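pasting for ref. prot 1 ->
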Amino acid sequence: MDLVAPVVVEPLRRRRCSECGQGPLERMIVEFDAPVCLHCADLGHLVFLRRGDTALTRRARENSELWAVVVRHNRRRTRYERQGLLVEETALAEAERSCLADAEARSRRRARDAVRRAALDAGVTETLRAEILRLFPSCPADRATEIAVHASAKGSGRVGRTAAGRSLDRGAVSAAVRASVRHVDTPYDTLLMRGVPRHQARTRVAPAIEAVLRAWRRGGGCAPGRGHG
């Protein structure tokens, strides 16, 4: 079945998300003629890979379960032009490992690692991790760490950087865990790549998400692996 990659737009004027109100948006998707931020569109976990390195782009796209095309409107040429891709961070890291013979790729990887280390707030991350394990005692420890690190990156706008996240609001923390389960433990990303609308895809994977969360709350064991239905 042919894949249908989501299209992400870099807006030319200030726009705010029609769902959460966040803005101005650096990148967005358009649903029903309304702007939606990447976090509400379930694309906030992806990282931007600028166009220019053909080999790196191809490998990152091939390794990424979910990816999106980033475009910007060129007013002079009256057309949308491709700026790059949004891909999974692990897929980009794997692609860079495949391109390590290229000195430029090695330099880019070091720069990304430095930015990522600088973006982490160890205190916020550890506090969030502890709260995840308190609410979900059977969540694997390394998974709790992964969720906390992702959710608390500085400048990300993710739940760990919001007022609710910093105050350890139960709903905000649970939302971060739920988002991770959606992308890692269900076929949600695959459904998006097959062109299933976001809201329909969420409905289809909701029972699987709840099963994982119940297991983690009650001590019922580890989550199943990501499906590919």
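and prot 2 ->
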Amino acid sequence: MHLRYRKAPEDSVHHPVFARFYARISVAADTRGGIAAHRAELLTGLSGRVVEIGAGNGLNFGHYPATVSEVVAVEPERTLRQLAVGAAMRARTSVDVRNGTAEALPVEDEGFDAAVASLVLCTVRDVPKALAEIRRVLRPGGELRFFEHGLAAERGLARVQRVLDRTVWPRLMGGCHTARDTLAAIREAGFELGAYRSLRVPDPGPRTPTSPCVLGVAYRPRADLV
């Protein structure tokens, strides 16, 4: 099998202040905001080899089922990657944490049964390129499991999201963009959408620019075999 990936330079993404902030609020959101239940739903039924894009501080690791033989977890931010290594050591599943970006995944072509994108596509610099990389590393018929926040259905909140994305939000929140249309991007990348549902995070709770979320599955077409 030919390898087409490029090794990411050290600290190609570096947000140390945001990373420490995220490490604290993400744990609180999991325990008090209901995010842990969404992570469990996202990963239920997975099997085989899995690549996780933007693993952050490794909060997904404890939710992988025993049917997963290996997780290759890619995280470009040094502080979060170090935390992910600690989480990997506590996980039931074998987890290999690697430095890399979504746009240049340090893994082989068609080497994975599934890919996981969890609250990460909002932060990548080039969404079409990241999704093309995910498609490259999945075997034909492989799954993309996604749990992402994105563009609100309500015009007022969507307008607020777009204003934030053009001004302060990406700078303050580690490159996050609140108004990206995840479903449209996945379709445009050539994936076949499976079941998905829209949800609000937290629910119940205050409505924020990051509240509108979508959770679901898409597939690399089996037609890629020919």
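The radius of gyration is 16 Å.
Strands lie at 48-53, 68-74, 95-98, 112-118, 138-149, 192-200, 212-219.
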